[in-house]
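pinned: reference chain
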Amino acid sequence: MQPGSQRPGNIPHRIEPTGIFTGLKVRPIVVGVVVDYVATYVAMYAWIVIFVSKQLSEQGEFSEETLQNFLTSSEGLLVGFAIGTLCTVLGGFVAGRLAKDVEIKHGAIVGVGSLIVSALEQTMSGGGASLPQWYLVVSSLAIVPAGALGGYIAARLKRKWV
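pinned: its structure tokens
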């Protein structure tokens, strides 16, 4: 044994930085992004079928054009933003629960993955052209913190249940 290789009991180990990808597991992230994507579409279609179509039918103005106008109105954009953000929180939560470690980091990466999927979808469909620029910026800025919040909730609940 070399001299000085033993550490006295009261000296802590030195702190070493961890990388961004240290401790990440791919499967929980992919599952979280899929949960976010599917939940967003299910919730949006449910909202449209249950509330929006009923409201527009009662006004006697239900058509594809009036539906599109409603969805791009301030009310439609805010509800869509809330649904999308909550579903990203759900995706981050699922990823954090599945990962069982570094939950917040997993949730944040779910937000990054969802941002990439959303950008690809808008580019391929051309759907982002009809949305206001402020909406695209705000939703892009909110998606990563929303995923991280889901991971944070998963971490907090893990401590409570253990």
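why pinned: The chain has one domain: 26-161. The two ends are 40 Å apart (CA to CA).
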